[in-house]
Amino acid sequence: MKIVQKDFRVSTRSRNQMIDITSQVESLVSKSGITNGDAIVYCPHTTAAITINENADPSVPHDIILALEQLVPHRDPGYRHTEGNSDAHCKSSMIGCSRQVLIRNKSLDLGTWQGVFFCEFDGPRNRKVIVQIRGE
Ligand code: ZN
User: Fold this and answer.
1) CB 115 within 8 A of CB 20
2) What is the distance in A from the centroid of ligand 1 to the CA of 54?
3) Distance from residue 89's CA to the centre of ligand 1 (Å)
4) Where are the beta strands (DSSP E) in 55-125?
């Protein structure tokens, strides 16, 4: 089994934002030389996350952000963390900092409507995404 690890940067523009990173991940997979296996897409941040969801209709990421903001408000008198970004830490843990995607025939085996998203919850910032590609 071969393992390739690469990373790339993502510049976010809003406090809460979902950015489609499917093409960046797909490009690393095609350069990896791996035909079948999997890719782990990971972000080493405590106020960001990685998810897979619909990338055809931009209303979907909008509505996910809206729902998360309603579930976890930016300000709450009960928060103790003094940085003022407790909501971002909560959303990061709710969504999770990595996703695994299968690779088949040198490309990501995503569904028709699926894309890989970087989720920013405390932007704007310059972020890092690490991709580990494993297989043969
Ligand atoms: Zn914090």
Assistant:
1) yes
2) 29
3) 6
4) 98-104, 107-108, 114-120
**Sequence-distant (≥ 6) Cβ neighbours of residue 127 within 8 angstroms:** 9, 10, 11, 12, 43, 45, 48, 118, 120
Q: What is the whole-number distance in angstroms between the Cα of residue 82 and the centre of ligand 1?
A: 7
**Can you list the domains of the chain with their CATH numbers?**
2-135 (2.60.120.460)
C-alpha 48 – ligand 1 centre gap (Å): 11
- Structure tokens belonging to residue 54: 């619909």
Distance 19 CA to ligand 1 centre (A): 21
Residue 124 CA to ligand 1 centre (angstroms): 14
Report every protein residue that has its C-beta within 5 angstroms of ion ligand 1: 83, 85
Give the tens place of pLDDT for each residue, 57-110.
Answer: 999 999 999 999 999 999 999 999 999 999 999 999 999 999 999 999 999 999
Strands, E, within 55-113: which ranges? 98-104, 107-108
pTM for the complete prediction? 0.97
